[in-house]
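Quick one - inputs below.
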Amino acid sequence: MSAGQMQAPAIGAQALEKSFGDLKVLCGVDFEVPRGSVFALLGSNGAGKTTVIRILSTLLKADAGSAQVDGFDVVTQATSVRQAISLTGQFAAVDEILSGRENLVLVAQLRHLEDPGKIADDLLARFELADAGARKVSTYSGGMRRRLDIAMSLIGRPPVIFLDEPTTGLDPQARLEVWQIVKDLADSGTTVLLTTQYLDEAEQLADHIAILHEGRIIVNGTLAELKQLLPPAKVEYVEKQPTLEDVFLAIVGNNGTVATPGDGNPGESAGAHE
Amino acid sequence: MARHFISDTMVLTGRSMRHVTRSLDTIITVTIMPIAFMLLFVYVFGGAIQAGTDRYVNYLLPGILLITIASGIAYTAYRLFMDMQSGIFERFHSMPISRSSVLWAHVLTSLVSNGLSIVVVIAVALLMGFRSSAGVAAWLAVAGILGLFTLALTWIAVIPGLTAKTIDGASAFSYPILFLPFISSAFVPTATMPGPVRVFAENQPVTSIVDAIRNLLAGQPVGTDIWIALGWCVAILVIAYLFAMRTYRRKIAG
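Output:
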């Protein structure tokens, strides 16, 4: 790897355009993701988030514009890009008929790593799937599936990870587990590009947030920068009622691995925005 | 990434073979219809059919084997369709592997699982009194023709497997193929059929393939049948392969 690649941003996209038939999904998308940061692509359904991810992960060719991942062009150096990335799609792409452990071994074998069995066992332990490791994935809950899916993406330690709506369809507990995994990934220096339609998810996880709307990035910046776009928050004193999520988590028990409810909850000081 | 083609294909074939061995009911589903036909034709219609062999099951088996394969490849399309739907195809394609391995693994799995079905059907035929005087070379020739036929139909199955919108759509293509043996020499000699039907029956692929296999199993000289049979298999294989690869490239090129 050249020095130039080391200094290049982890992900760069310039003027990406893509149409499906008459439908123009991307109309010139530009953004950069610095190395080691968590970047959230925020947008409503159909905004083109998945299309961006598919172009960056070499599954789809853009009609115009260019993109690089880990310093490699996604079209001309697709093989090097695939070496550098992992994709966790919108729907957990796991093999239902294999066991959790077999899924992990499969990915380790396809990445041509030494000792796939040990890699699988380590990840099962790390993602609290050790007990379920020998079971068919079709018996897993949605949260377990998503954990396995992300575990499969970490095999081979790719420097860039794409998470396409990682928490869509998950219950609140599983969602907090996924958040914790993303935070751990960020701490270990992995670059994460995640898409989400949940504003709080972007706020919780991302260093940089871009809003994709009707095929264009309309806002791009840190959370603080985005907040400055609105009138300054005024301080109001509001009695804080527990949210239904707080109640749910308090009743079912919060297994200690996640942030306590209310911790860093933006609702606490009730900004005037939203 | 071509250097990993063989190892990647083996790993992925191992994966889809697990799908076959963990749902052995698919082998039963595949073989139950051909076995039912065999029972029906041997024990119900067989007495009235003048096929010119001492045991009707000997006459019937080659056609039944082709029906077995035609019913087996519906599952090839099904497995491919499920991989497309579940997103695991995209996961594999976003990984640093030899991309065509993903498709070849399904093709190899189709060969092996159809081979298993064929063995089951032949075992039932043996119980029903099927006997063959064929030597090792003739059996190998039969295996070769059946393998080539499976490969040809498998590449046809790849096309709906990649493009179908629903599970039913993915397997519906096999119905017309299942029907072809009925208008051939598989169940009755073509000599009694009326003019146009007879012309069709004698010039469609199933008749030459069935006749070639039947002669091989009976220890008879195969004549030109085997070359016509091989010609059909190779022609279908090449055309289906080209169309399947074009479909595949279109699918993955986005």
